[in-house]
Amino acid sequence: MSGTGRGGLAKIDTRTKRDDEEMCQDDIATPVKAQTIDELHSLQIKKSAPSTPIQGGTAGSGRSSFDSVVDQDQRNKQQLQSISASLASLTRETGPKVVKGDPASTRKAADTPKLSSQSHHATPALNISDSSLKFTHILYNLSPAELYEQAIKYEKGSFITSSGALATLSGAKTGRSPRDKRVVKDDSTAKELWWGKGSPNIEMDEQTFLVNRERAVDYLCSLDKVFVNDQYLNWDPNHRIKVRIVSARAYHSLFMHNMCIRPTPEELEDFGTPDFTIYNSGQFPCNRYTHYMTSSTSIDINLARREMVILGTQYAGEMKKGLFSLMHYLMPKRQILSLHSGCNMGKDGDVALFFGLSGTGKTTLSTDHNRYLIGDDEHCWSENGVSNIEGGCYAKCIDLVREKEPDIWNAIKFGTVVENVVFDEHTREVDYSDRSVSENTRAAYPIEYIPNAKIPCVGPHPKNVILLACDAFGVLPPVSKLSLAQTMYHFISGYTALVAGTEDGIKEPQATFSACFGAAFIMLHPTKYAAMLAEKMKKHGATGWLVNTGWSGGRYGSGSRIKLAYTRKIIDAIHSGSLLNANYSTTEVFGLEIPTAVEGVPSEILDPMNTWSDKKAYNDNLLNLGGLFKKNFEVFLNHKIGTDHKLAEEILAAGPSF
């Protein structure tokens, strides 16, 4: 710098610098190769290369790079034809014109998409409509980052939390709508499925399903863009199911990206026709005047068509559990048992299944840092062993605390969907205790986010089958060893007890029964699943256990909850095999075998009668609970298993006797 300018400031010397002068770094940076802002933005993102090598497309094969491009274009065309066929209306011969990509991006390139190998349509039929004249943009198997962008841009109520998760709202419905779920009853399903009292299957006819399907498909085709996920169910490659999810929200697409098994790019190239398709038009209601409809919500499954339609609810859990219902139908046909359970495996390959309703500790006890997690909710037991059905976890978030559930807490990061949570408007930190939107706040994340997850999520045949019950009556032992018949009885019963509020602040325990520990999702009669469970346990030498995580020394209000530390010691003894070698005595009424000693657990609490000071009150509560079991089991009494009633009678005899 030399001289002074106005105001006494030094003049800036803009003369060319000499070679010996040090240059500022900015002076030697190469200029960008762009003339406009749009050109600069186009340089920011590079095209994804074809993920699958073309067979024979190597040097010396005689195939040119042009041939490879043509093959890739042909694959894309076939993929779009498959998606168009999925979206085909039943009143038209062809599906809609579809093109890949975000419509906002396409409009920048050209006002109207040109028909090419990236789009698909057929000659319009005579009954041409406005929707058949437009393009439907397909956002196909987008990455979490892309889905974040779509949600933030276009879906109100979408935010990025301080931990990096995507916070979303599920609309008016914040839980499943079991009374609005329907299954098509035809000649085949009338014989195969469980219908009538106690069954979760509410019938609808084929015509009504097609009316709802048409309504859902027309809604999706009327949109500028739809999200399409092609994914898998079941980690066992021999029994994998291909599923396609067509939805209108980035939230739903990211949820299923996390919950289903994510195909590799190579697998996606050859995905082909799906085995089952979900049409999620949850933002659009069903027609209440349609036969079988009882509200503006309808979740419909047609097993013959391998399709599911969702109308009038945006709660993402409907998709997850709809697919679980499908697996409860398809897998038993292959002699594979589908199970609503947690599953983990020890370092030596010993596998344990955990069954339990909400509040029994299933998630807490199946998550063990000394064991590998195969899965937290849905599994299959085949001739090859056990396998997780899903590719992710759907964890409850209400009152989540890092110290109590560190794995779930740490899994809520980029890529995770958190539903209906409340967060600080400035910091975006989630308050997991806030119930302003819903009590049923949830997080959906890939199973790889759990540090000790076993990938692939498969394991050998289980050694232990653990049935968890939170008994608020205080009369079930902390642990009991079950016979096969007892295992079937308690598996069919699916017992736990809830603490319900009554008048004047008095709280009484309320018995709850859910067949197979998942009555809302099973398709066949519970005894069929129970018989398969007993058969597999007998064949592979598994032992059944009933573990009470509820009350001891009195019912709820007078006794105390069994300490989690004691329950963990019991579970450890089951895993190690030491509990098999214990001495046992038998209880009255339920006829349960209880050990006389478990390492680390006070012996006096192992027999619940010892913990009650009022023996008459204990006996009254025991008989009361036994009566509730008997009453619940009445709905299963007349079901025939096999060629005679022998197995049914054997199961019934394993129940309470008094």
Automatic annotation (TrEMBL):
Keyword list, A-Z: ATP-binding, Cytoplasm, Lyase, Nucleotide-binding
Comp. bias intervals (Low complexity): 78-90
Identification of the protein by name: phosphoenolpyruvate carboxykinase (ATP)
InterPro entries: PEP_carboxykinase_ATP, PEP_carboxykinase_C, PEP_carboxykinase_N, PEPCK_ATP_CS
Gene Ontology biological process: gluconeogenesis
HAMAP family the record matches: PEPCK_ATP
Primary subcellular site in the record, as a coarse category: cytoplasm
Amino acid composition bias (Polar residues), ranges on this chain: 49-67, 114-123
EC number: 4.1.1.49
Family of the protein in this entry: Belongs to the phosphoenolpyruvate carboxykinase (ATP) family.
Keyword ATP-binding listed: yes
Compartmental location: Cytoplasm
This protein's record includes keyword Metal-binding: no
Gene Ontology terms, MF aspect: ATP binding; phosphoenolpyruvate carboxykinase (ATP) activity
SUPFAM superfamilies xref list: PEP carboxykinase N-terminal domain (SSF68923), PEP carboxykinase-like (SSF53795)
Renumbered residue ranges of the record's region Disordered: 1-123
Parts of the chain that traverse the membrane: none
Catalytic activity: oxaloacetate + ATP = phosphoenolpyruvate + ADP + CO2
Gene Ontology cellular component list: cytosol
PROSITE patterns reported for this sequence: PEPCK_ATP
